[in-house]
């Protein structure tokens, strides 16, 4: 476990490295640099915890001392909303007015000569 401020020695982010070997070598180099500057690495046994043994263990962040609240069912509200959605009246379709269309007149060689507006 490393006990030193991270920002002082970790200026470059490790995720910018190209491979696992380069990440390992960078980590090894920074660890050696920390130790050479007088840093100390503490060894811990497997299963050892950082919590004090004389104090009771704290509650989990997701567990509260309050009893669980009763649920409010909103099935009626949801079904009313769904019924409102289904009852929508389709928009009135107005009779389409015939609009004039542009028609291109071509010569014998397939070149456009002029444009004519027709109601066909």
Fill in the keyword field for this structure.
elongated, alpha+beta, about 120 residues
Structural features, described:
- With 120 residues, this protein is an alpha+beta fold.
- It has a domain at 6-36.
- It has three helices and two strands; from the N terminus they run αααββ.
- The mean pLDDT is 81.
Content of β-strand:
5-15%
Number of helices: 3
Uncertain segments: none
- End-to-end gap: 85 Å
Which shape, going by the Cα principal axes?
A: elongated
Q: Summarize the helix and strand pattern as letters.
A: HHHEE
Instruction: Describe the main β-sheet briefly.
Output: 2 strands, antiparallel
Q: Determine the fraction of residues in helical runs and give it as a percent range.
A: 25-40%
Write a brief structural summary.
This protein has 120 residues and is of the alpha+beta class. The model has no long low-confidence stretch (mean pLDDT 81). The protein has a two-stranded antiparallel ribbon.
Layout of SSEs?
Elements: H1 6-9, H2 20-36, H3 75-86, E1 101-106, E2 112-118
Antiparallel strand pairs: 1-2
């Amino acid at each position: 476990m490393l006990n030193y401020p991270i920002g002082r020695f970790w200026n470059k982010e490790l995720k910018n490295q190209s491979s696992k070997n380069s990440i390992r070598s960078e980590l090894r180099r920074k660890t050696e640099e920390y130790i050479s500057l007088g840093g100390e690495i503490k060894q811990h046994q497997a299963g050892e915890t950082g919590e004090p043994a004389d104090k009771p263990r704290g509650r989990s962040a997701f567990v509260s001392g309050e009893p669980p609240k009763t649920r409010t069912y909103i099935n009626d509200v949801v079904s009313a909303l769904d019924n409102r959605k289904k009852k929508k009246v389709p928009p009135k379709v107005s009779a389409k007015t015939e609009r004039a269309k542009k028609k291109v007149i071509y010569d014998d060689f397939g070149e456009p000569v002029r444009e004519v507006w027709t109601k066909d």
